[in-house]
């Protein structure tokens, strides 16, 4: 099978395509023919080994070989003990810290982070949900304990996590302010944001005591800069685990009313979350935003585009010819 390989840390050009053995499922696994996957900022961080903390998951001295986490595809073979899925099932999900989703085939535990693909979505759109949708849900529901009536600010509201965060926060009954560039304001409003802040014209951190939750999905702010905009018991969420962030998370967990929070949403996601997100998608509550599509052979270009920081929503990579 063809796979996108990464055997050393570096720029997008370190990626190359190679033929590797097709895996065989164990008794409790399914073999999935991956139709589409996505490229995320986390994939770029795993390719670069930056920030250094990602090397504890991607490989301390070099990457694990085949990167990629999110996928949408078809079950081609099921192990002898598998009852949840059968050959031909359309599925979506995550390989978590095992990586390996940037390849034509992957074996995953049938009782793990997989679910039937939403019937209303294509494979790439479903893969996007298992990244941005899962991250947004985990941060807002589990960490921030979002409630109806909360005032929530989403920084990076036009990105992968941000577009889902706006929709999920609205689902829970929050008043949502989205922060993005002016050119993406229409998109963010269409997703349900009650207010849009153009970061080139306005600094949201100067809105004192305005928000119950600030969710920085792009790590362009900081807890220190944002805490004045939080209500007395407000929560600041960030998706990038730098050492400085983790120190703030530890410190604020002990002292003070305002909290800095981080969640490793993709490390050990609960299978029931994938089923819940599937239901939200089929009900039309959440809709993936797809910016561009690339082929497997264009993977270097896909990484380069993600690193421009200008993408809207998600970048899909097709693994089928």
**How far apart are the termini?**
12 Å
Shape: globular
User: Main β-sheet, in a few words?
Assistant: 7 strands, mixed
| Beta-strand percent range | 25-35%
> What's the gyration radius in Å?
19 Å
Order of helices and strands: EEEHHEEEEEHEHEHEEHEHEHEHE
State the helix count.
9
Overall strand count: 16
Task: Give the fraction of residues assigned to helices.
Answer: 25-40%
- Secondary-structure class: alpha/beta
Low-confidence stretches: none
Average per-residue pLDDT, rounded, comes to: 92
Write the layout of secondary structure elements.
Blueprint: E1 2-6, E2 16-19, E3 29-39, H1 41-48, H2 55-58, E4 65-66, E5 70-78, E6 90-94, E7 105-109, E8 114-116, H3 123-143, E9 151-155, H4 160-171, E10 175-180, H5 185-190, E11 195-198, E12 211-216, H6 223-226, E13 230-238, H7 243-254, E14 259-261, H8 271-282, E15 290-295, H9 299-306, E16 314-318
Parallel strand pairs: 9-10, 9-12, 10-11, 12-13, 13-14, 15-16
Antiparallel strand pairs: 1-2, 1-4, 3-5, 3-7, 3-16, 5-6, 6-8
């Amino acid at each position: 099978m063809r796979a996108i390989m990464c055997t050393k840390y570096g720029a997008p050009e370190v990626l190359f395509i190679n033929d590797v053995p097709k895996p065989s499922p164990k008794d409790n696994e399914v073999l999935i023919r991956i139709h589409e996957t996505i490229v995320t900022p986390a994939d770029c961080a795993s390719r670069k080994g930056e920030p250094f903390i990602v090397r504890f998951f991607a490989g301390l001295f070099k990457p694990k070989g085949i990167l990629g986490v999110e996928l949408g595809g078809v079950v081609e073979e099921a192990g002898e003990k598998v009852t949840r899925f059968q050959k031909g099932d359309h599925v979506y999900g995550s390989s978590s810290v095992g990586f390996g989703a940037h390849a034509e085939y992957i074996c995953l535990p049938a009782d793990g982070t997989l679910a039937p693909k939403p019937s209303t979505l294509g494979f790439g759109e479903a893969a996007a949900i298992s990244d941005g949708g899962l991250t947004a849900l985990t941060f807002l529901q589990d960490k921030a304990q979002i409630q109806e009536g909360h005032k929530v600010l989403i920084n990076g509201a036009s990105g992968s996590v941000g577009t889902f965060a706006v929709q999920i926060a609205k689902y829970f009954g929050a008043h949502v302010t989205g922060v993005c560039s002016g050119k993406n304001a229409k998109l963010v409003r269409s997703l349900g944001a009650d207010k849009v802040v153009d970061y080139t014209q306005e600094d949201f951190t100067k809105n004192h005591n305005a928000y119950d939750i600030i969710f920085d999905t792009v790590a362009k702010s900081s807890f220190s800069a944002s805490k004045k905009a939080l209500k007395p018991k407000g929560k600041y969420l960030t998706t990038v685990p730098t050492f400085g962030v983790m120190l703030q998370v530890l410190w604020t967990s002990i002292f003070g009313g305002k909290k800095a929070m981080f969640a490793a949403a993709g490390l050990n996601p609960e299978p029931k979350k994938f089923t819940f997100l599937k239901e939200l998608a089929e009900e039309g509550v959440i809709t993936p935003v797809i910016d561009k599509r690339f082929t497997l052979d264009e993977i270097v270009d896909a990484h380069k585009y993600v690193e421009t920081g200008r993408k809207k929503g998600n970048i899909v990579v097709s693994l089928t010819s």
